[in-house]
Amino acid sequence: MKFKIKKLKLGAGRPIAFIHESRAKELNVHVGERVQISYRGNKIIAIVDIVRGLLKSDEISLSEEILSYLKPKPRDYVDVGLALEPKSTRFIFKKLNNKQLSKNEIYSIVHDIVNNSLTEAEIAYFVSGVYENGMSLKETIYLTEAMFRTGKILSWHTREIVDKHSIGGIAGNRTTPIVVSICAAAGLVMPKTSSRSITSAAGTADVIEALTRVDFSPNELKNIVNKTGACLAWGGSLGFAPADDKLIRVERLLGLDPESQLIASIIAKKLAVGSKYVLIDIPYGPQAKVNKARAIILGKKFLAVAKHFKLKMRVVLTLGDQPIGNGIGPILEIRDVLKVLERENPPKDLEKKAVFLASQILEMTNKCSKGQGADIAQQILDSKKALKKFNEIINAQGRKKNPLKLARFNYNLKANKSGKIKSINNRVINNLGRILGCPIDKASGLYLHKHVKDYVKKGEKLITFYSESRKKMKEALEFYNDTKPILF
Amino acid sequence: MKFKIKKLKLGAGRPIAFIHESRAKELNVHVGERVQISYRGNKIIAIVDIVRGLLKSDEISLSEEILSYLKPKPRDYVDVGLALEPKSTRFIFKKLNNKQLSKNEIYSIVHDIVNNSLTEAEIAYFVSGVYENGMSLKETIYLTEAMFRTGKILSWHTREIVDKHSIGGIAGNRTTPIVVSICAAAGLVMPKTSSRSITSAAGTADVIEALTRVDFSPNELKNIVNKTGACLAWGGSLGFAPADDKLIRVERLLGLDPESQLIASIIAKKLAVGSKYVLIDIPYGPQAKVNKARAIILGKKFLAVAKHFKLKMRVVLTLGDQPIGNGIGPILEIRDVLKVLERENPPKDLEKKAVFLASQILEMTNKCSKGQGADIAQQILDSKKALKKFNEIINAQGRKKNPLKLARFNYNLKANKSGKIKSINNRVINNLGRILGCPIDKASGLYLHKHVKDYVKKGEKLITFYSESRKKMKEALEFYNDTKPILF
Description:
The structure is a homodimer. Chain A is α/β, with parallel strands linked by helices. The first copy, chain A, has four domains: 2-82, Barwin-like endoglucanases (Beta Barrel); 88-134, Up-down Bundle (Transferase, Pyrimidine Nucleoside Phosphorylase, Chain A, domain 3), CATH 1.20.970; 162-237 and 251-397, Nucleoside phosphorylase/phosphoribosyltransferase catalytic domain (Pyrimidine Nucleoside Phosphorylase, Chain A, domain 2); 409-487, Pyrimidine nucleoside phosphorylase-like, C-terminal domain (Aldehyde Oxidoreductase, domain 3), CATH 3.90.1170.30. Helix content of chain A is 42%, strand content 19%. Chain A contains 18 helices and 19 strands. Chain A has helices at 21-27, 64-70, 88-96, 103-114, 120-133, 137-149, 176-185, 204-208, 218-228, 242-251, 259-272, 292-308, 330-342, 348-364, 373-382, 385-397, 426-436, 470-483; strands at 2-5, 16-20, 34-39, 42-51, 59-62, 77-82, 162-166, 190-194, 230-234, 277-284, 312-319, 327-328, 409-414, 419-420, 423-424, 445-448, 455-456, 461-467, 486-487. In chain A, the strands form six sheets. Chain A has a six-stranded mixed β-barrel with strand order 1-5-2-4-3-6. Chain A has a four-stranded antiparallel sheet with strand order 12-16-18-13. A three-stranded parallel sheet of chain A has the order 7-10-11, sandwiched between helices. In chain A, helix 5 (120-133) packs across helix 10, helix 7 crosses helix 16 (385-397) and helix 17 runs antiparallel to helix 18. The longest helix of chain A is centred in the middle third of the chain and has 17 residues, at 292-308. Chain A starts with a strand and ends with a strand. The mean pLDDT of chain A is 91. The interface between A and B is large, with 57 and 57 residues.
């Protein structure tokens, strides 16, 4: 079917064709389906979007990705036909039927994810197949390899590239900026990239963004690392293991996190930034992502895949039974981080965990002998060398002028009886943060005055809530009363 | 985050919000994800589409579905925030984990599919869950009930509403118009709705559309049926069991067809049009959708679900080992149908199957006694009462003026040796039809001069190919030579 091109400046990182509803009916295509667009012998697959106005029925609007590929003359015609499904859908079908995939088959799937040839629904089928039927060690290795090879890869002049990763799930657990500052101050190179929040109140990238820019090109990132020995960047805009970003987006719809994909995703990103040493932190506990038994198995699988890629890896299991630090929310968390670095009334649990993780990295890279890591890390922190390094990194990334002000409205929630705190529900605390406006409203969130095992007197402050909106504050309090996340 | 509304006349049957790339980044939303749009206390969930031009960064364009719900003043502001996932995603997760779903849980999923609250990726997770873990009889009944109750339902003054359905997969198998004409001529009421092609060269709706309109509103459909006793309509625009249309769209991405969803889908649509008697045709064979063993099991499950809804059902298993009729493609197939109805050189296999199916309906509705159905059906056909009824229906639907011309280019493929035909591959024949331009180019397709067990002399015509394009013709011939669908 012929369509006349109407230029509209569309584009969102993938090939999209806007067509009129009446023609879509004739073609029998629906929103989100694929069509093949041909122009003078060149063909490209596009995802359909349907409009009722905006275009005449014989017009089509093509996103920049398509225009730059087909290079049609303005107001010329393109031919639109039904697209055959990409071959990789057959391999996804195979995985759904519990068959092992070959290296080529896994590469084909990853390739089609990166090239936007697979729709999100097809990616969901792949995730389900892996979730239901698992992947062998071999398949996990192929997936890892395919993921990092289909994206940008950094290389460095030194071999001492270190990295850390936590599988996440613990509210407030903002050790990364502290660990990076300690390790870089000790002379290690740490090109750290982090994600934004997926289901929690804040991700490391959201927190750092309260102070500085976090979205860089690979070259900018290299410059920052060459200058300071480290960075605290957002991983999303860098193009490392790009298939992974799409997989995560589809996984999070249902909160799925198939083990082999989790492992492949983390290791692929570490390989892409050129890491040689990686510390993996697996918090376990009742409201963490895994319990202790699964944490042990997961750790072993991480090590098996890392070994294949000659990546030196250490796995630590840490107790993740309550939030870490006092602040939950971007600005509240960066304030905790600064308290630790500035040695002014630091949250003890956050400091302790950061020093522990840093000590592991110092020991595995032979920056010190076994057993000495904690002392050295503590020393770097106490001497404020870590603070100095942190400020270097933030300045190199472009420090923002804004002060770290908290949100307009706050509310102190007080204990209605005395007693010892038995448990604090991580997940509810994260949800509370989101209801209050996190991570978009950086100044919103909550401040925990008490932790598990603390003794509280009736009328003492338990939590302070922060929000930019009275309505969100009200919703958060209602949610708190419904869920009672703090048990005495 | 506040956005100013820019009116653009967008709309494609679901709530879509267009936002600028820069703001999407700040909100951390991607194409196809959900946001919540609020205006003066009213909230609606929308799917995000991202543009680079077209809008300023603080502008938003909302599809008509959203505007008609929120009724904002022109150029006023709406608030956009991240949407919490709908509750039904938890139930989908449950099914992926092989748990039984309750009636309320299944209703919640179907409801959210109909309301566009679930993305296609989430629907894919549901399909995978059912595909991997199956559904009990109870779950299948709940699914059926939820599907037909969330859509339009027709009611009639008579109880003699009959219907037929083939689970499909056989090229050329266009019995429906003949069966409907015979049964309606016998005095039964048959509000038949059909689908367009999904993976085959043509669906019944595509074929009928060569002669007449097929897209009606429920009221138009009722008028046609009240006037003629039957209709031959497209089911897609009528709003019967609307969740099913979306499920099928997602299923077809991978060619999945979970048994319980197949059963629920068919029975829900029959209940929605008010059927009291339904004949189910299950073609089996090596390239059909099922083999004989599975056909038997499937038939029993159909009967169990139908019984719950007090639907009188008969299931017939028919041999589907080769295409039926000579023409494959919309116009080529309607020509076969007309030959049968006009009693002029009809394809014998098509006639025989149509008479058989009609006989079953006549017997199950007690229009005749057991064993007499075939004679009566044949009589209605031979007397041209069926032709008369067919013409009434087509005229009531609005007969098109265009003659049934075949495509511009044709090519006769001849036998390169003599012998008896052993097999004809159904699937390849369907694919050939699609390559030649079906179902969009209605005049394209293929004509089979021979069937299985026919004796062919070297040089005799085997197939005539029809296409509107020389290129497609060439591609089809190459595909034919690669796949060799006819074996001697």
